[in-house]
Amino acid sequence: MDETPQPVKVDLPFASYRSTVAAEGDVLHYEREYVVKQVEVPAAQAAAFRKLEEVIIGDEKSMAVLKKQ
């Protein structure tokens, strides 16, 4: 393993998201958890919701870099 994505953790009143990537031997483990705390998001928290979306999309596009042995 040459590079792994940084862990992500976001905790908001309406949702939380966390993500980790770890290498154990020859196995790469991705762990992601998305928890919806409120089904409806108040309009006052629309900017926070958009930021959460950006974080999740960015995390899903991140990559682990493997090196050849």
Kindly describe this structure.
By secondary structure, the chain is of the alpha+beta class. It has one domain (8-61). 23% of the residues lie in helices and 35% in strands. The protein is built from one helix and three strands, in the order βββα. It has one helix at residues 46-61, and strands at residues 8-11, 15-24, 27-36. It has a three-stranded antiparallel beta sheet with strand order 1-2-3, with helices on one face. The longest helix has 16 residues, at 46-61. The radius of gyration is 15 Å and the shape is elongated. The chain starts with 7 loop residues before the first strand and ends in an 8-residue tail after the last helix.
Compact summary:
By secondary structure, the protein is α+β, with helices and mostly antiparallel strands. The chain has one helix at 46-61; strands at residues 8-11, 15-24, 27-36. The model has no long low-confidence stretch (mean pLDDT 93).
Features:
1 helix, 3 strands, alpha+beta, single chain, three-stranded antiparallel beta sheet, 69 residues
